[in-house]
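Following up on my earlier thread - several people asked me to post the actual chain instead of describing it. Fair enough. Here it is, all 397 residues.
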Amino acid sequence: MLTTVAHGRHRVFDESVRTLQVTLNDNPLLPPVLQLGKTSYLRISWDEMSHEYHRYIYRIQHCNRDWEPTEGLFESDYLQGTNDLPVEDYETSFNTSQNYTHYSVTFPNKDANVLLSGNYKLLVFNEDDMDDGPSIEVCFQVVEDEMPVSMQVSSNTDIDFNARHQQVALSLNYGTCRVTDPYNQIHAVVTQNRRPSHTVAGTRPDINKANGLEWKHCDELIFPAGNEYHKFEILDVNLSGMNVDRMRWFEPFYHAILWEDKVPHSYLTEKDHNGIFYPRTDDQEANDTQSEYVIVHFSLQSPRLSKKVYVNGEWSNGEFAEDCQMHYNEEYRLYEASILMKQGYYDYQYITDDGATADTMGDFWQTENEYQAFIYYKESGSRYDRIVGYTRVNTRF
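Reply from S.P.:
Thanks for posting it. Predicted structure:
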């Protein structure tokens, strides 16, 4: 039985900000996980929907395993360099129907780097509205390779076989870390497709060995299998791309009407990327500033459900984003949503307000999913939670 916990996710608080993207080493397929002491970087970018310049500054904050600010650490303990740095990389859109300014930050950089592993937030503030709190909150993790951890995912679960679920098993070696109280010092977090509602934390291992721990038959690590994501692509606003029925122009926006989706009764064999998105145009030049903003029209043929229904993907910055809620059309017996999105490639799925896809996408054991496992360790007397083990697997059955 899947139990969920709060998990770090990116958030946008400013309604004028859209298309927040966080990529590792410029690869949109990779999660935002840095290796402590190794060369890698995050690129954080977003659009502010005007040509008016805004002076943004960003702040790095170390967090505990529950994504709350770490108490007892000084900034100099976890940060090398300076905090509250200005965002200096920005460029206005060119020849687009909607004006916007594209901002970006690369971290670490010559002015700031991290010194400790753990959970981190990068907070972006509009300097004119500092008292209103951050405009953007980005969550990322920094890991150490101190405790080797392996993960296996099976469709032969403790509740069914080749049916609707997948079960995760973990094996952990303490490595060089001194562990005297494993049940209190070690904290495992497992997440499916980077979704907050499909994140499990603090599951007690069922095997305690002299040199490590194992999670072999833990009911909390049984996940609904889901189904492959739907996807669409808009490379040219004058042509219908993948899964786009037709393109239209109604001033002041381009409109993309997607083909109607249906609740599948079987596994979707299409390859997806588990919710990622990638803004781009057909010529792959100046994607950041020459991509158009398009109102995308989604529709899901379904009887009315007792739950709310949302369109969801990494691009939504939250599984239950208000502008991604669908509304039921009684005449045509389908759910509809219209969302302003930047031109490019998108994965998406339909979920209900409990985070499930059972009523909208189905659950099928064959589904390819990404699983990540983070091992947190807080040694006796330590002031912060380290991440000493990390692994990531994609299922293939």
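Confidence is low (pLDDT under 50) at residues 1-5. That should answer part of your original question.
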